[in-house]
Design brief:
Length: 271
């Protein structure tokens, strides 16, 4: 969805222009006023079937019991009514923003950006509704991938193929919030003979040193290609036999998951 089309939002971030600054220690009334102002400036065609915006002082935690200390910033509460066709008249939603959750995160993160998080949360929930109207919800997969990212960051068990549930930017490239994953499949024999790994990203060629081990899934944090807070990981996936895939899907085998970090250099056609 092109949120910038037809309105005066910022062309880079999509966030609205205008005097809506939110500072640390934002009160409920200040947050509510800013949320209502931002919501009002979103074009009406993006709010078809939305019954309104609700701002709550609550701080609900994530509904998944395996993911603790994760605060729900917002949600799209959708109801569908029986009909032979779907649209704004049969799919109605309310967007809820939780000021209490924003406060919790702001206290734990000195770099917490109220304006950016408000905009991202609001448009994220609106997109849930728009995809419900279309009979699909790609963000369900993105939410799952974000949950698995959190588990991975905490050192807990996670689905090593979680990134595939993110938004596909192009074949083999997935985005989960600010994290970009580039999947490269390797045979063990080809990997052992290689000394470097070449890849292209956004029209530029890059080269990284080959890690010592391939494993089944190897997440390689790549520095020097994207600017923070965006991250890029090259995900090296060992090419598996059909029998290994069956065993993986059946939960019989446990994958060998590795992580490493490297600095990228311009590729041969770029340098």
């Amino acid at each position: 969805m092109d949120w910038d089309s037809g309105w005066d939002g910022d062309a880079t971030t999509g966030a609205p222009n205008g005097p809506l600054p939110l500072c640390p220690g934002v009160t409920f009334s200040e947050f509510e006023a800013s949320a209502v102002a931002v919501y009002a400036r979103i074009p009406e065609e993006y709010k078809a079937g939305i019954d309104g915006l609700v701002v709550s002082a609550a701080a609900p935690t994530h509904p998944d019991q395996d993911v603790e200390e994760v605060w729900t910033l917002g949600e799209c509460v959708t109801e569908e009514y029986a009909s032979d066709w779907s649209g704004p008249d049969t799919t109605r939603s309310q967007v809820v923003l939780y000021w209490g959750s924003f406060q919790k995160l702001a206290r734990s993160d000195p770099d917490f950006d109220w304006d950016e998080e408000l905009w991202e949360t609001l448009t994220h929930e609106l997109r849930h509704h728009l995809e419900s109207l279309a009979g699909e919800d790609d963000l369900e997969g993105v939410d799952y991938a974000a949950d698995q990212t959190f588990l991975r960051d905490r050192g807990e068990d996670f689905d090593p193929w979680y990134y595939q549930h993110g938004l596909m930017v192009e074949p083999g490239v997935f985005r989960v919030e600010r994290n970009v994953y580039m999947e490269l499949e390797w045979r063990e024999s080809d990997f052992s003979r290689a000394s470097e790994i070449d890849f292209s990203y956004r029209g530029a060629e890059w080269r990284i040193p080959r890690p010592d081990r391939l494993g089944d899934v190897h997440f390689v944090w790549v520095n020097g290609v994207v600017e923070p807070p965006e991250t890029l990981e090259v995900v090296l996936v060992r090419k598996r036999t059909w029998w290994e895939d069956v065993r993986r899907l059946a939960g019989v085998s446990r994958p060998d998951v590795l992580e490493s970090e490297v600095d990228a250099e311009p590729g041969p056609t770029q340098g």
